[in-house]
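Task: encode each sequence below as structure tokens.

Item 1
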Amino acid sequence: MGTDQRQGHWSGVETGWSVVSTLIGGIVTIGVLGHFADRALGTDDVLTGVGFVLGAALGIYIVYLRYGRGDSGSD
């Protein structure tokens, strides 16, 4: 099995890990900011949940911008 053939089997792994890490990073980052806002305002984990949901939405949006738009200008 040559190097070119092995490279073909693993060609999408880099993109997959990038997508997963972007999604998890968005959820964790905005969720933690929501948690700190909860502690500062004295609320009962309301903003933590909102932060997780907004982080997921932001992560999905960033993944869409990087990988999902496609090449629409090639008519």
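Item 2
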Amino acid sequence: MAQLEDKEILIEVCNHCGKDVSRGSGNFANRVPDFNDILTRLDNNLIFPIGDFVCGICDDNSLT
């Protein structure tokens, strides 16, 4: 029986605007990983808190 590996699943959407940031989307090169957990993202009022990245446009428009 095959063993399941512990792999981290990344949701490749921007957690600010919801744009696709996966390879081939045109937004892959400028994406920035967001290391906060989902609860922190919810506390920060992000619209798409399950997304594990911030796209380049939202990163440029960020206040921080």
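Check on item 2: The longest strand covers residues 32-33. The CA atoms of residues 57 and 63 lie 12 Å apart.
End of task.
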